[in-house]
Specification:
By secondary structure, the protein is α/β, with parallel strands linked by helices. It has a single domain, classed as Rossmann fold. It is about 40% helix and about 20% strand. The two termini are about 15 Å apart. The model has no long low-confidence stretch (mean pLDDT about 95).
Length: about 190
């Protein structure tokens, strides 16, 4: 099987990136990580990926000031140079411009810590608690021009327990994210292959 060349974009420790790297250790997994890219040179996940033998690159978004597209054009060049066919956002904390989203339309996925379409954006677990929800979850979706609005690929949920806080929910949900993202990435690969 010809594996799709995958880039994983991160901004921090990259725990979801780690789950994807682990899944890709299996030669039958349909994606092969060829680049881990971060907008933050100090992102801990870069070291993790390098230790796993995956090429890494940091492009500091701060160097581009308010010119988000210039930053993204530099990212796009690095992705193209690496032969990337599919992008997985794994805690990449930048809102992407329409230019970049259009450029990678149908070839870029994201994981979000809510049961979309509920709670797009930040503070998802606190918002679920404040609303009196009985469960929280995570969603892997195709990236579209609207933040956290793309077509849903897969979801996982856990119940909200008495005494839960936003932090405890995040901690309990993370293992579900780590199981969901590789499964959803495999589904995304099927669509990209056509």
């Amino acid at each position: 099987m010809n594996r799709l060349k995958l880039a994983i974009l991160i901004s921090g420790r990259g725990s979801n990136m780690e789950a994807l790297l682990k899944a890709a250790e299996d030669a039958a997994f349909p994606a092969q990580p060829v680049l881990v890219l971060s907008n933050r040179p100090d992102a801990k996940g870069l070291e993790t990926a390098a230790n796993a033998g995956v090429p890494v690159l940091a492009i500091d978004h701060k160097l581009y000031g308010k010119d988000r597209e210039a930053f993204e054009r530099e990212m796009d060049k690095a992705l193209s140079d690496a032969g990337v066919e599919l992008i997985a956002l794994a805690g990449f904390m930048r809102v992407l411009t329409p230019w970049f989203v259009t450029r990678w339309q149908g070839r870029m996925i994201n994981i979000h810590p809510s049961l979309l379409p509920k709670y797009k954006g930040l503070d998802t677990h606190q918002r679920a608690l404040d609303a009196g929800d009985t469960e929280v979850g995570c969603t892997v979706h195709w990236v579209s021009a609207g933040v956290d609005e793309g077509e849903i690929i897969a979801q996982a949920a856990i119940p909200i327990l008495p005494g839960d806080t936003a932090e405890s929910l995040a901690d309990r949900l993370l293992p579900e994210e780590h199981k969901l993202y590789p499964r959803a990435l495999a589904l995304a690969c099927e669509r990209v292959r056509g």
